[in-house]
Design brief:
Layout (H helix, E strand, L loop, with lengths): L3 H10 L3 H11 L6 H12 L17 H9 L18 H16 L3 H24 L31 H10 L7 H10 L1 H13 L13 H18 L2 H4 L15 H15 L19 H9 L8 H14 L2 E2 L2 E2 L1
Antiparallel strand pairs: 1-2
């Protein structure tokens, strides 16, 4: 029969951080580092990007794990350093892929659909990163967005193809870096994903282009437009639309694994209209084959699934097996 320690080890390997953190003190009360490390892992698993860089017990969480989590962290003030996910979204998308894989393996499909929805919302910023030099940091927008003749963020301009909410987000993003931390956080809670769609519309779908995107080198505009078009298409694929059938959406059903795979098959066909979207048809060994390849094509750089959660789980397994001396792990 499995021992309690064996069961705790299995919980770690299954990424059941919340359960492990609650139960470990009852089985190995000397393992004082485990609850703090489990809390850290749970934040990552639930994609609580606001708190990735929250204070943690430095004895419980190795420095390399903290640094990798901070790379995915969303700054909570306009001047916070380092800039984390506003410097680059690639580490965050690697973590998203790892979370999607884990949720699939655990058959936690509602949570998986929520992660896919997040990926779809911010994918245009991943496409813009090579030309911006960052991933949509409002403190570093190019002056060209405000160029003479630009309609970007101009409320009420009927010639602009942005929706009302996109216009509001565009107007806000140009001034939010000068707002207090409360305003900064409110913008990211409610409007930054709308801003991502607005940028993509400017280069991929605008019927009456203004000067807002003239700062982009001419040789890069066409490839950026294709990457943004694919990003917008992904957000409207059958796979991402499945979220509305899950409890995190507007219904009460949860899609089955078969429904998810069928939706992804149809989504791949929707995406396979150009060289970037074609990458979704690759078999790259992921549970949703081609998803990492697609994200990499939109980003213009490889984005493999991260191993951050796997490394947290591995550290927990190590802690569970390390001898204890004087109430402290060696």
């Amino acid at each position: 029969m499995n021992s309690p320690l064996d069961l705790l080890t299995e919980l770690a390997r299954r990424y059941a951080f919340a359960d492990l953190g609650a139960l470990a003190p009852q089985v190995v009360p000397e393992a004082v580092l485990i609850p703090a490390l489990c809390e850290f892992g749970q934040r990552l698993l639930t994609l609580d990007a606001e708190d990735f860089a929250a204070e943690v017990d430095h004895k419980a969480v190795r420095g390399d794990l903290r640094r990798r989590a901070r790379d995915c962290h969303m700054p909570q003030t306009p001047r916070e350093q380092p800039r984390g996910a506003l410097a680059s979204l690639r580490p965050a998308y690697g973590l998203l892929l790892e979370v999607i894989r884990i949720r699939w393996e655990r058959r936690e499909l509602s949570s998986m659909m929520a992660a896919l929805h997040i990926a779809g919302e911010y994918l245009p910023l991943l496409a813009f990163e090579p030309v911006l030099g960052h991933s949509g940091d409002p403190a570093r927008w190019p002056e060209g967005l405000r160029a003479e003749g630009s309609r970007f963020g101009v409320i009420g301009d009927r010639d602009c193809d942005h929706t009302k909410s996109e216009k509001s987000a565009a107007e806000r993003t140009l001034r939010v870096a000068h707002e207090p931390p409360e305003g900064w956080r409110a913008y990211f809670d409610r409007q930054h994903s709308q801003l991502a769609g607005a940028l993509a519309t400017c280069v991929a779908r605008c019927r009456r282009p203004c000067t807002a995107m003239d700062w982009i080198p001419e040789g890069e505009r066409e490839t950026l437009a294709v990457r943004c078009k694919v990003a917008l298409t992904f957000a409207d694929t059958p796979l991402v639309r499945l979220r509305h059938a899950a409890p995190v959406g507007h219904g009460f059903g949860v899609p089955s694994p078969e429904e998810v795979l069928d939706a992804w098959t149809r989504s791949r066909a929707h995406l396979d209209k150009n060289g970037v979207g074609n990458r979704a048809t690759r078999d790259d060994g992921f549970p949703l084959p081609g998803l990492p390849s697609l994200f990499g094509a939109v980003a213009g750089a490889p984005i493999p699934p991260a191993t951050l959660l796997a490394d947290v789980a591995g550290e927990l397994v190590r802690l569970l097996g390390v001898p204890v001396t004087h109430g402290r792990h060696l």
